[in-house]
Task: structure prediction
Amino acid sequence: MTWYALQHKPAQGDRALENLQNQDIACFYPKITVEKIKAGKRTRKLEPLFPGYLFVNLEQTDPMWSKLRSTRGVLRVVGFANKPAPIADDVIEHVRDSLHTVAEQGGIKPGQSIELSEGPFQGLEAIFQAYDGDERAIVLISFMQKQQSVRVPVSSIRRS
Result:
């Protein structure tokens, strides 16, 4: 059995996955949680890691190949010179392992201890308070024997 990539029709990844699984085809459709700002509010949404693509595990001689293109939601099999392009098992395993790592990391939560890695407060310990828009965060630092609220770029904060 070898992994192959399928391109699905726009916004029909879940439909293609469901219909492939109904045909007892082993599928992999990796998704991650993404934070987005919509109407001024930060929301978390589950999105495909590879938009437009999902993966199937089939034998080269499997009779299901003829049914793939007519499966609802599937656009085409990714290939070169009219032959499906195989994907190594270790690549799929690496993506699976990476998904678990990303899920464990998650986002930084209020009250969590962080370290500032850039800017004038570089190297200081801080406490994360909240996100301030898409690119900034509000943190508390101990400065001049007092807790100070400071806005810093999100890229400059790291978990400690």
Observations:
- The domain at 113-159 is CATH 2.30.30.30 (SH3 type barrels.).
